[in-house]
Amino acid sequence: MFFVLSKVLGFFAIPSNLVVLIGIVGLFLLPTRFARAGRWLAFVSLVVLAILGLSPVGNALIIPLEPQFPPWDATQRGAGWDRRARWRDRWVGPRQGGIERGGRTVDRGARVSATLSQCPHPVFGWQCCADHGDAEAKFALPLLENLGVARDRITLEDHSRNTVENAVYSKAIVQPKPGERWLLVTSAYHMPRAIGVFRKAGFPVEPYPVDWRTRGVEGALHPFATVSDGLRRTDTAVHE
Asked: How many CA atoms lie within 13 Å of 200's alpha carbon, on the beta-carbon side?
């Protein structure tokens, strides 16, 4: 019930969805005695869509999220891999959206696994309610094997429908023990929420952000070439 409610409320919390719905309401009001209000709603909806889609609003919203966790540093204990320590390093890789959008995360996760020879069983998380449904898991094994990760070193968590379930199910699978260190590999903009969710689930992880979408503050000055790109960036930032 909570999952369904969160999805329904989440749908209306996405800026592009909300703005389009306002425009549709305006159009429905045109033949009624509230035609004037309808025209205003339709006009405002169109203007806001143009602003969110073409202006740098999306970048301005996502920029504060990405630098909250710096790039992983192998020399810093508590932020990366300490080669002198005798513990098992592993990593968990939740992802957002389809294979194409999350490709950088998967690729980087595979490279981390290959680099850290003490990382015996990387856990790759797939959200079954993403764009391509649970079919994504079918592509996971050959994709990861092509990236150089041996099959017997892969554990897939392919039942979660959101980040909360991803954290809970991943913890149940790996059952982290005191002294173990786990790397959480995901997009930089998603890292603040993901870290908070994993910590709340009682799964202590260390951030390994990848897939930066902006180049810092300067990104707030660059408009988008297409409305779809700007809306996607705005929706992503507000969702996070």
From this structure: 10
Q: pTM, whole model, 2 decimals?
A: 0.73
Tell me the sheet residues that pair with 157.
125
- What are 182's two structure tokens? 């786990």
Read off the amino acid at residue 127. Answer: Q
Q: Which fold has domain 73-210?
A: Rossmann fold (3.40.50)
Q: Give the separation between CA 177 and CA 204, rounded to whole angstroms.
A: 10
Place of tokens 């969702």: 239
Sheet holding 123-125, edge to edge: 155-157, 123-125, 89-93, 181-187, 206-210
Where are the chain's structural domains? 2-56+223-239, 73-210
- Using only C-alpha atoms, the chain has a radius of gyration, in whole angstroms, of 21
pLDDT tens per residue, range 147-174: 677 777 777 777 777 888 888 888 888 8
Stated length of the chain: 240
CA neighbours closer than 13 Å in the CB half-sphere of residue 45: 18
What does the DSSP 8-state code read for residue 187? E
Distance from C-alpha of 88 to C-alpha of 182, rounded to nearest angstrom: 8
For 34-52, the pLDDT digits (tens) are 999 999 999 999 999 999 9
- Please state, in angstroms and rounded to a whole number, the distance separating the CA atoms of residues 163 and 125: 9
Let me know: does 144 contact 152? Beta carbons within 8 Å: no
End-to-end CA distance of the chain: 22
